Amino acid sequence: MRIAVVGATGRIGAKLTENLLANGHSVKALSRGGPALDALVAKGAEPFLGSFDTGEGELGRFFEDADAAFLMVKTLWAGEDFHGHYPAVALRFFDALRDSPVKLALSLTAMGSELSGNTGHFQGFHILDQILNRLQGIKLVHLQGGWFMEDLGRWSDAIAQHDRIGFTLAPDVKAPWVSIQDLADNAAKEFDTPNDGHRSVKQLGIDYTMPEIAEIVGRALGRDVGYRFVDTRDHKVETVFRERFGTLDRWVYDLNTSAALNDGRVKFGNDRPSLPTTMEEFVNETLRPLIEQARTDGAKSETFLSWCSQS
What we know:
By secondary structure, this protein is of the alpha/beta class. It has 11 helices and 12 strands. The protein has helices at residues 13-22, 35-42, 85-97, 121-132, 156-162, 180-192, 210-221, 235-244, 248-262, 279-297, 304-308, and strands at residues 2-5, 26-31, 46-49, 68-71, 104-110, 139-145, 147-148, 164-167, 175-178, 199-204, 206-208, 226-229.
């Protein structure tokens, strides 16, 4: 199968591309270029320069000779238009795919993408899904990923300095977490053994509460690590965020994201495949070295997460 991979040099796309090549597929790799693309080309991928996130390149030609496609939108955390980015990219996908020979598309989306309404971070993925669902003649798999375990590295400094993880997720909320390797492996399987459904959803993630994650980290480090819930309804928290860490738009975006999780609107069902990478394994093999390095490096510039993690 000839598969066109969007974001082929990113942390997900690179692993997926390597998987697909190893499984004997022909891969057309979209990237803006650089050593990471050169490395994939050396392994057998065909390069294509461009970006659906920015609109650069001859994107109308990217899918013109592909049997299948992997789609993903890069989250621009530092951007100003949080919600407008996803519809813009989705429409670029739609325009490039609708007259292409692609018969199977796998779209990396997010938990909660099935929900309409104001759900913060998840709202853009709902719009992405709805636009892609308009494609005719293409089998579409919405791959809903949980939080990436790798993103726990954002707390490495906070844990090193304060032995605490601070966040806006309520202590009793179980959220799904998935390693990037497991996500890439499951995405590759969708191309190896495609299902017969015209539209399908696959959810990937293992549920953990934040206190459970803190306890796992503590066991790995051999010392107590706690969890501090930061209530976004506290006016002081908003004031600190807006004065020191971000804009009003970003605050509202994050506020709505936390609310959608904390009030139970965004959550996964129980029909999920088992995943090989547990939180215990990830913490021991990946996160613990980051925390130990952070302790060696010493204090860094304060972030909102490290501020949340203070007592």
